[in-house]
């Protein structure tokens, strides 16, 4: 007898779908997917059958396609099928045949769901598939997430046979006399998963005949631990990651107190593209001098004085802007600089984003640019010359923001104004000033 009650109980316990949910059922014609289709029919669910012909096994692939179509007719459910040039797709995308087949399969499932309104895609994985997946993940080094195995539900993908082992599937199909087709490639140890199924798992079962049940119990613990870790990470995202303007700040003191530091920091930063090697280097640098930068493909991590600063990479370099005598405005980086001529000796106060400069001291063309190593100026209100790098340190300018600060340079090469911070003492308005040019910065949205 088909285990319909167990099947339904598993579906309901894991909230996979309801009897009214339109389900697209992936059927290869093999023993697992055939049993799943019969169980769905016997339990009264609303489903259709979908079959992919990857055209990799000649007449055998055509046989599987025709068998799946006949099964759909027998069960009186809709049938969807497609033929793929899998080898060409693999060659075009420089991926393995197995990866190509997987990509093509799931892309097509998505398309059929969108076109026909299916809300779930049922896949016929069982407990032994989970064991093979975990062993594969362990050999590939996929981390904690790789230990939870195959989930009963992942988005639209549902797996209602995970309550059965391979031996149980075989026994049920044999007892019920259900017809299916054999994929000859399953007997080949050429593929990694087949090698684990045919050579590794049998050896493990010699050590533990109840291997499937042992893994099933362990999976419950692994999934609970993963949930616990995600709860901790959600908490840290709220308390440790502080968003300021376009960057995220992590307090170095708080990072040092994390336990376990390496795991938590990696899980927090891996979503920004940082791998374990970079995290190891970052941790080793926490007690060293600030200024070191770590980069992923999309983000940079800057070890500042008190914080680790996470920021998207600036993919567009800010070029130097030239300001002619007749210019009225210029865009530079995140700012618009306006230029206004005033027939008075107006002094700008209490607005760090604006300054007035004696017209007679301007030598055109002027330049607006980022700071450069060796830059110096004479800060207004201070005695003597100061290196711009030291000025930024005194102003506690985050290292990642230095390149974004506009520096206004006279035609003789002298810095006249650090936009948003301080004008130069040499260019201030004085008793001899007759006319000024007013420079004002506006943040671009």
Describe the structure in your own words:
- There is one protein chain.
- With 445 residues, this protein is of the alpha+beta class.
- The chain is built from 13 helices and 22 strands.
- The chain has helices at residues 4-13, 31-42, 59-75, 86-93, 97-116, 127-140, 166-176, 192-207, 211-239, 252-256, 261-269, 276-284, 388-394; strands at 23-26, 47-53, 79-83, 120-122, 153-154, 157-158, 241-244, 247-251, 293-295, 299-303, 307-312, 321-323, 329-332, 335-342, 354-358, 366-369, 376-377, 386-387, 407-409, 415-418, 422-423, 436-443.
- A six-stranded mixed β-sheet has the order 3-2-1-4-6-5, sandwiched between helices. It has a five-stranded antiparallel β-sheet with strand order 7-8-11-10-9. A five-stranded antiparallel β-sheet has the order 12-16-19-20-21, with no helix packed on it.
- Strand 13 and strand 14 (335-342) form a beta hairpin.
- Helix 4 (86-93) crosses helix 5 (97-116) and helix 6 (127-140) packs across helix 8 (192-207).
- The radius of gyration is 33 Å and the shape is elongated.
Describe the SSE topology.
Blueprint: H1 4-13, E1 23-26, H2 31-42, E2 47-53, H3 59-75, E3 79-83, H4 86-93, H5 97-116, E4 120-122, H6 127-140, E5 153-154, E6 157-158, H7 166-176, H8 192-207, H9 211-239, E7 241-244, E8 247-251, H10 252-256, H11 261-269, H12 276-284, E9 293-295, E10 299-303, E11 307-312, E12 321-323, E13 329-332, E14 335-342, E15 354-358, E16 366-369, E17 376-377, E18 386-387, H13 388-394, E19 407-409, E20 415-418, E21 422-423, E22 436-443
Parallel strand pairs: 1-2, 1-4, 2-3, 4-6
Antiparallel strand pairs: 5-6, 7-8, 8-11, 9-10, 10-11, 12-16, 13-14, 14-22, 15-22, 16-19, 17-18, 19-20, 20-21
